[in-house]
Design brief:
The structure holds two protein chains of two kinds. By secondary structure, chain A is α/β, with parallel strands linked by helices. Chain A is built from eleven helices and ten strands. The relative contact order of chain A is 0.17. The chains are: A alpha/beta, B alpha/beta.
């Protein structure tokens, strides 16, 4: 037998979107090629369209109330579970980092950081409410308290400076507080993002709570920020023009805007509950005291 | 919705129960003929050279003329605020800063009656409300936030508190002095300086507050008050030296402000419109609920962003509740805001009266059944009878749009799920009310309603310690309480 006939042919993987707990291709049929360092084509990546985004928002909106209604303990366990499953897939993530152009050492470092960041936010699931709530000593005969509630559906444009930590940060800060999220992963590092979707798929995250699209921010940013059924938008990155556009469009329905520059994901402030809080609404409840 | 038989009120109040006039004296009130802009602790002539009149909506008489600040005037105000921030206020010991704010609270209390009377004359609200609610709450806000000035590091866990700089603040005409207090007190406590613009129809109590700030001997430039209309507000929003903008007003203008701030990095607080659901279950204490509904919609002529303007009554008690509401609105006294018996004063401006009347027409044209109290209203001035609409549907414009007047749209419901769906099916999310004697049901409702303030078995209650602000298109950020500090701190 010649060498070519005896060699085992590797099974190439198709990377697709992650929407409503499934892995559909983009409805548009469009793709962009991802090549490795040697110029070999690794995959044809889905180039998500406006309609894919719309479908994902429909799924996110549908999934959000039940997710918000699940217990804080349950949310914490699911976030922890995501970290567990990622831990088991460390080698795969590291391999994909290397395919995407990283050396092994920096790959290991970021994968570790991403997993640890999930553990960090998992722990907040039943604590941020207490830290950011208050009982308010009003001067009338009422019991009055304020506590955070999820803002609803969050859209996110994920920073392309690093493959995993920014994505994990956006997903964790949104869902730990009972929101659902539709995240757009830009063209540079789609492999690790979709593999992260597979992790979510096998971590008891209910369908629709996290939806991941791969595509071009330049094409979709305007649509994502002007969609009327999105309550908040996360912008990660350094493109001031794009941020301006997003903030401008956000005013259409008074979206909350959470913004992070790419340096944020390398800094010490990454471990902070405030990114959870910006995706929360404070509710104040009054009730008379009496008989 | 099927046309239902009309429910008639059961008591005729129109000829009985006349109250003797009980006017609050206003001869001790000092209002200047003309007011300049309050910049650097002085009233200065505007560079614009322009003035506009502010009138009493109950008499249509001019009370004073006030300066209209143009861009150059706003620039002067912001520059003085910036200078005061850099050289004095941000460097002052927090304890001392707090003592200045306490002074403001105390002087407001000393001059409370004067402020209340001017508030009622300039804005049309009943003296009972300005005297018992607006002014005491405004003073209480300063007193509350004064105490925060030297405790800011306890406000936000894990964060060292830092001020932002110059705060530009734009307030509405429905609670003129109270909104000024909501804005100025937390800003100062957090170490910022202020340029505030009161609404063009109600500038007088803000200008009285300027006198109080001057008398409290605050360092010049810490608080600057500039009068004017939309262009003046825009100049504040767009001034490069304002680093934080706080706005209370309509959702339409709030969106414009949010858009103008895109890409600037300025912090923003928006307190915008509302269309609150007030929900009455069959197991509620009905008479108390009726009082709550009345207070919810007719407080301050309905010029309240959190007004309970959509009533949802459980079907089994709908006839009873509607009859009681019709009885009750006939006992409401509409008229002279300075009369201590008055329940409903004057509509704030002619413009607003025209808008409300337009909505009454829309309601009738869309098939709503309108019921108005049979009370007499003064021949002069801007007045509207308390109004109820039945036979309206979820899609009616008077159900979906904020009217900002004494107009209640009444719908019925059968199940908890139905009323949650209806209550939340609106772009607004400022406030809501729930009436039931069953605790578990109350908490189910308060948890499900998408609103920033939920009153259960009460309505329209406010307190400096209690955060206020909306979900969705009702705004961003909170004012009042510990959470009201966050928008004025850097993080």
């Amino acid at each position: 037998m010649s060498e070519i006939t005896s060699k085992r042919i590797a099974v190439a993987k198709t990377y697709k979107l992650f929407v409503d707990g499934k892995f559909p291709r983009t409805e548009s049929g469009r793709y962009f090629k991802l090549a490795d360092a040697n110029g070999m084509v690794i995959a044809n990546i889905c180039q998500a369209s406006r309609k894919d985004f719309r479908d994902a928002i429909v799924a996110a909106r549908k999934a959000q109330p039940a997710w918000a209604g699940s217990t804080a303990y349950n949310k914490g366990q699911i976030l922890y579970r995501i970290a567990e499953v990622m831990e088991g897939r460390r080698e795969q993530f590291i391999d994909e980092f290397i395919i995407q152009g990283f050396d092994k050492k920096s790959a290991i470092e970021e994968v570790n950081n991403a997993i640890d960041l999930l553990i960090y936010f998992a722990g907040w699931s039943d604590k941020y409410q207490a830290v950011f709530s208050s009982v308010n000593p009003v001067a009338t005969s009422h019991f009055n308290f304020s506590h955070p509630e999820p803002t609803g559906v969050v859209a996110a444009i994920i920073c392309s400076a690093q493959p995993l930590v920014p994505l994990v940060h956006a997903v964790a800060t949104a869902i730990v507080g009972g929101n659902s999220i539709v995240a757009l992963i830009q063209e540079k590092y789609p492999l690790t993002a979709i593999t992260f979707g597979e992790v979510l798929h096998s971590s008891d995250v209910p369908a629709g709570v996290v939806n991941l699209l791969t595509g071009f921010a330049k094409e979709l940013a305007s649509h994502m920020s002007s969609h009327m059924d999105v309550n908040a938008i996360i912008y990660q990155g350094d493109d001031k023009t794009q941020l301006h556009l997003i903030e401008n469009n956000a005013s259409l329905n008074v979206k909350r805007v959470a913004k992070y520059d790419s340096a944020y994901f390398l800094g010490d402030e990454l471990r902070s509950p405030y990114p959870i809080v910006v995706l929360q609404e404070l509710k104040t409840t009054w009730h008379p005291i009496g008989i | 919705m099927a046309k239902k038989k009309s429910i008639k009120p059961s008591i005729n109040f129109t000829t009985l129960w006349q109250y003797a006039p009980a006017p609050e004296a206003n001869d001790h009130i000092k209002v200047e003929k003309e007011y300049g802009l309050f910049i650097n602790n002085k009233f200065v002539t505007p560079k614009s050279k322009k003035y506009f009149a502010t009138t009493n909506p109950a008499t249509e008489q001019r009370l004073a003329t006030v300066a209209e600040a143009n861009q150059a005037d706003v620039d002067d105000a912001v520059t003085s605020a910036k200078k005061a921030y850099d050289s004095v206020w941000s460097k002052m010991k927090p304890t001392e800063r707090g003592k200045y704010i306490y002074r403001i609270a105390r002087i407001m209390q000393e001059r409370a009656r004067e402020l209340a009377v001017i508030e009622s004359m300039d804005g049309g609200k009943p003296i009972r409300e300005s005297r018992d609610i607006d002014v005491p709450l405004a003073a209480a806000h300063f007193f509350y936030y004064a105490g925060w000035a030297d405790k800011l590091n306890y406000a936000m866990p894990g964060i060292t508190a830092n001020s932002i700089g110059v705060a530009g603040q734009i307030i509405p005409w429905n609670f003129p002095l109270l909104m000024a207090a909501w804005k100025i007190a937390p800003a100062l406590a957090a170490g910022n300086t202020v340029v505030l613009k009161p609404a063009e129809t109600t500038p007088l109590t803000a200008l009285k507050l300027a006198e109080i700030i001057r008398d409290a001997d605050l360092p010049p430039g810490v608080v600057n008050i500039v009068t004017g209309a939309g262009d003046t507000g825009a100049a504040i929003v767009n001034h490069p030296l304002t680093r934080k903008i706080a706005f209370t007003g309509s959702t339409d203008v709030g969106k414009i402000i949010q858009r103008s701030l895109a890409g600037t990095g300025k912090k923003i607080t928006l307190e915008l419109g509302g269309k609150a659901a007030n929900i009455i279950f069959e197991d509620a204490a009905i008479d108390q609920a009726v009082e709550g509904i009345i207070n919810g919609i007719f407080f301050n002529q309905g010029h309240v962003c959190c007004a309970g303007s959509r009533l949802f009554v459980q079907e089994s008690v709908a006839d009873k509740v509607i009859r009681k509401l019709k009885d009750r609105i006939n006992t409401l006294i509409v008229g002279n805001p300075l009369d201590k018996n008055t329940d409903i004063g004057a509509i704030n401006s002619k413009e607003q009266m025209i808008k409300i009347n337009k909505y009454l027409k829309i309601g009738v044209n869309e098939g709503g059944e309108m019921y108005q109290s049979a009370c007499s209203i003064p021949a002069k001035g801007y007045f509207i009878r308390p109004t109820l609409f039945t036979n309206v549907s979820q899609s009616s414009r008077i159900v979906q749009e904020e009217i900002f007047g004494p107009v209640l749209a009444i719908q019925t419901f059968r199940t908890v799920e139905e009323v949650i769906e209806k209550a939340n099916n609106i772009p607004y999310g400022l406030s809501a009310g729930v009436w039931s004697d069953k605790g578990s049901k109350v908490f189910k409702m308060t948890a499900q309603l998408k609103a920033g303030v939920v009153w259960a078995n009460t309505y329209n209650k406010f307190d400096p310690t209690s955060p206020f602000g909306g979900f969705k298109e009702s705004g961003i950020g909170r004012e009042g309480g510990l959470h009201g500090l966050m928008p004025y701190l850097k993080f």
